[in-house]
Specification:
236 residues; 16 strands; eight-stranded mixed beta sheet
Length: 236
Amino acid sequence: MSCRLDALCVDAVDPARLAAFWAAALGWDVFETGDEIGLEPTDGTRFRILFEPVRAPKVGKNRIHLDLTTRSLDDQLETVALLLELGGRQVDVGQGEDDAHVVLADPEGNELCIIEPENAFLASCGRLGSITCDGPREVGLFWSEALGWPLVWDQDDETAIRAPDGTGPFITWGPPVVPKSAKNRLHLDLAPVGGRQADEVERLVALGATPVDIGQGAVRWVVLADPDGNEFCVLR
């Protein structure tokens, strides 16, 4: 059994506004299907981004944020200026004055980093360089097994995985780990490949996941949490 990354899901008080912001940030296309709004990649990335309506605003720093790459210093400056015009704002999450990346928050406060063009680690990525997570090495190892993505970095208390063909963004973990006080605003949706949902849930639980109740009620997906308590969903 295995599973694939189907979507990155973002809680949103105003899904349409966040979709427009992130479409501009990534250069992806907005789509709407019934009551669902999201982004389709235009750069070969194999998963979508979905914006899921919620009533509660964001509280505290997210455990998960996105790192966006840039091609040049001008591109970095222009990207920052564009996102500020679209409702983003600069935020301080403890970065140093000498850090070359720029930390912003989207219109609902979700942190993101505009990475400097000299960053060699993300040089082979498209605009979406990394889904960057707070978390210990053990969580990175769990997700490597869960998705079947190999470790491409494992040192200095940081881990990173990437799709086996070396395309798309990295998913990374490292300190500091923010204490979890509420449901994450961002989570991953996984889809089983070549098997049943129940069998994939059983496999993930054996790897260290736990079933969780976030008030989802009777739904077609199964909500689990990784070993550090981060929610994710297993689809049919």
